[in-house]
Amino acid sequence: MLRQGCLKLAGLRIFVIDEADEMLNQGLRDQLEQICKRLPTASRSSTGDDIFASLEQFQGRTAVQRVVVSATWTSGCREVMQQFLDNPVLILVPRFCATYVLSDELTLSSIIQSYIDVGGEEWKFEALADIFASICVPQTVVFVNTRRKVEWLAERLTHEGFAVSAAHGEMDQTSRDSVMGQFRAGRSRILVTTDVWARGIDVQTVGLVVNYDLPSTAAVYLHRIGRSGRFGRRGIAISLVGGQSTDKAHLATIAKAYGTAIEPA
C-alpha cells in the first residue's frame, strides 16, 4: 500500500508493532524496516518556542510514537526494540493482569499441564476421543501443525458427531472471521487450528487445549496453552506424544524453559 501510494503517513502519530516476536519468525524484518523508514520524522524548522519539539529534535526522535507489543519477552523482541525504537521504555504486565508475563516467566497456577504417550501417531485420534469423553468443558482448542491435518482432523471429528470449526493460515480473512464468530457464539465446541490462532483466541469458555501435534518451540507452547485458563478461570492443557523419545525430550525442554512440570496424565 505504501509503495502504491494508497496509504499516506503524514498524519500518523502512533505506530504499533504487535506480536513482534512472531513477525520476526515470519521473516518480516525487512518489511518493518522499510515501513519505519517511511514514518514521519520531527520537523527541523522549529524556532524553539515549543520546548518539547526542540527536545524531540535534539534527541533525534521521530514524530511518531512507536510501540512494540508481545505476549512473551524474547531475544527477538529485544532485537526489534534495539533496531526500531529510540530510548525505549519497557512496560511489563503484572501477574494479576495476565496469564503470563513478558519476561517469559509463565504463571501457570490456573492451567493444569499433562501429556499422554499414545505410542504412535495412529493412536492419537483415539486418545483425543477419550479425552473428550472424560473431560467436560464448554469449548476446546486443538492445535496441529499443518493445514492438511486441520482439514483431516476436523472432517473426522465431524464424522464422529462433534461440532467442529477449523482454521488455518491459508484461509482468507472473511473465512477466518466467520469461523471465529461461530466459535465465539458457541455454535461449535471444538476449534481445530494451526498456530495462526495460537495468539488471537480470547474466548472465556475455552477450558481445554490439546496439542495434537507438539509445538515447534517453547514460545509457541506458551501461546497455545494460554488459550485456556483465561479471565481467572482454570484451564487444562494436554499434549499428545507419539511414542518417540524426541517428543518427551522436547516437552522436557519446554518444561525446563518455564520452570514448570508437564506430568503424564
Automatic annotation (TrEMBL):
MF terms (GO), sorted A to Z: ATP binding; hydrolase activity; nucleic acid binding; RNA helicase activity
Coiled coil (residue ranges): none
Stored InterPro entries: DEAD/DEAH_box_helicase_dom (IPR011545), Helicase_ATP-bd (IPR014001), Helicase_C-like (IPR001650), P-loop_NTPase (IPR027417), RNA-helicase_DEAD-box_CS (IPR000629)
PROSITE patterns: DEAD_ATP_HELICASE, HELICASE_ATP_BIND_1, HELICASE_CTER
Keyword Manganese: no
SMART domains, A to Z: HELICc (SM00490)
E.C. number(s) listed in UniProt: 3.6.4.13
Residue span(s) of domain Helicase C-terminal: 127-265
Superkingdom, taxonomy of origin: Eukaryota
Swiss-Prot/TrEMBL keywords: ATP-binding, Helicase, Hydrolase, Nucleotide-binding
Residue ranges crossing the lipid bilayer per the database entry: none
Segments forming domain Helicase ATP-binding: 1-91
Class of enzymatic activity (EC top level): hydrolase
Matching PANTHER family: ATP-DEPENDENT RNA HELICASE DBP3
Protein name: RNA helicase
Species, as recorded: Dibothriocephalus latus
